[in-house]
Design brief:
The chain is α/β, with parallel strands linked by helices and about 350 residues long. The chain binds zinc ion.
């Protein structure tokens, strides 16, 4: 198979800017900030690779995965928040987290239901970035659906804000719309078997939740042991799926401090599950937060490691859509993405 590559992005991905927030008993400077995009976009430029501006695919693929009320909250929540005659701050963020249903009377009640933690606030331009992050990812899926002769079989999408922690009806962990799940569902129009392989430092509990009872979408994730590590509540090996989906959810939690060889041992096992599944198409959730100096890292992946990771994805010899999601050590985002891209094209 020839391996042509296409890269998608959109200027709107840089609009969302969260403010400092309180969690784990202390204040945090936000990690998931627009400057990440500035660094990441340097990589294709340095390698002379063209970046295509994403076109709009629309809302339908988003609503195929997420609850209507939740998407409505993401889109209109900020304006509702600003309309409240209280001294509220510049972003939707209540510190009230009540996951069970409530009557939704008022923006605070909606926020209590639809935000799972304090790391996913909604400010003036958040929705524009959230929406276009999903649209950018959808461009790669749409190309595979609409053009089976000229389509690139390796595609990489900038996906900011990221998505893998977003649940069907809850934002959290810097994530709002679950880009990987949205495109996996969209790809099902053409492909019978879609595999999502997640190599971000954190378990993508949103993807797991959305496909937990399904056997047509495999979810396999290599991530830091979730015991006292985000998302804290999921990512264990014993979470294997349910009903028809039993066995189609394959988690590889790594002990904290795992070295690079250990990381790739888990990656190889995760890839084995994709091969066993015999996927028609692969969605790769790529996180640069496994990089050894990343503030979120609990393992020791080097810059060279991202090239090896890309080579492993390429070697699967299937159409691959890579979503660039986590990764917070800005001084190395450019270099690490260059390493990954070079592994895809060489
Ligand atoms: Zn992460």
């Amino acid at each position: 198979m020839t391996r042509k590559m296409k890269i998608y992005s959109h200027d709107n991905l840089s609009l969302h800017r969260p403010l400092p927030y309180f969690s784990y008993g202390k204040m945090h400077e936000p990690l998931e900030i627009p400057e990440r995009m500035t660094e990441l976009l340097k990589a294709p430029k340095a390698l002379g690779l063209e970046v295509t501006t994403a076109k709009e695919i629309g809302m339908a693929p988003i609503l195929a995965v997420h609850d209507f009320g939740y998407v409505d909250f993401l889109k209109h929540g900020y304006n509702e928040w600003r309309a409240v005659e209280e001294d509220l701050g510049p972003q939707v963020q209540t510190g009230i987290f009540v996951p069970y249903d409530n009557p939704g009377l008022g923006i605070m009640a909606k926020a209590a239901k639809y935000q799972a933690d304090d790391s996913a606030p909604i400010s003036e331009h958040s929705w524009t970035s959230i929406y276009w992050s999903a649209q950018t990812a959808l461009n790669a899926a749409d190309a595979l659906l609409s053009d089976d002769s000229g389509a690139s079989d390796i595609q990489l999408c900038f996906s900011r804000p990221p998505g893998h922690h977003a649940r069907r009806s809850a934002a959290g962990g810097f994530c709002y719309l679950n880009n990987a799940a949205i495109i996996a569902e969209y790809l099902r129009q053409k492909y019978s078997r879609v595999a999502i392989i997640d190599t971000d430092m954190h378990h993508g509990q949103g993807i797991q939740e959305i496909f937990y009872a399904r056997s047509d979408v495999l979810y396999t994730s290599v991530h830091g042991d979730p015991v006292n590590f985000y998302p804290a509540v999921s990512g264990h090996t014993f979470e294997r799926g349910t009903g028809a989906g039993e066995g189609y959810n394959v988690n590889f939690p790594m002990p904290h401090g795992t070295d690079e060889a250990g990381f790739f041992d888990y990656i190889d096992q995760s890839i084995e599950s994709v091969k066993l599944f015999d996927a028609d198409v692969i969605v790769h959730v790529l996180g640069f937060d496994v990089y050894k100096d990343d503030p979120e890292a609990r393992c020791q992946v080097s810059t060279e490691g991202f090239k090896i990771l890309a080579q492993k994805m390429r070697a699967l010899d299937k159409p691959v859509i890579v979503l660039v999601e986590g990764g917070y050590y800005r001084p190395k985002l450019n270099e690490n993405l260059q390493a990954f891209l070079s592994g895809l094209i060489e």
